[in-house]
Amino acid sequence: MTQDPLARFGxxxxxxxxxxxxxxGQPLFAPQYGAESGGEDRSPxxxxxxxxxxxxxxAVTMYDPxxxxxxxxxxxxxxxxxxxxxxxxxxAGALGSAALPADALTLPxxxxxxxxxxxxxxxxxxxxxxxxxxxxxxxxxxxxxxxSTPAVLGFNLHFHTLARAVLEATxxxxxxxAR
Length: 179
Prior knowledge:
The protein has 179 residues and is mainly β.
């Protein structure tokens, strides 16, 4: 399992995150790339287990720390998933998806869409890491403005995360075509 990329903010226990659409440490498959990069902007199937018994909700994020921005790039941020949800089907991150529970909150990503946006590393920027993280949260609901940024979610998660599950895939410019 990938090391916890957020451990510098305070180590928390890790639990298990798996996907039938990608493998930890391996390149993303074509559907997880953005449409402008030859992909489908399709969020991967994700399943998690082994979270602490005190978990009251989950948040799911996808982040590229290697984007040439100075602050990374948030591709997806969803919170307020009930503990009865321990998996998401492929495509659950689509705009207006019925695959997410009604009370789930999808925040706008860097492109200002409240949806999953796939990988799209610019040419010449090397290999990027795409960190899919499921956060076990100690409250049933994070009261966030629906227009908040994923960074605001991250700030709140800093104070409410009991444990994390991490799956990290990689991507390169033109990677969708290579898959």
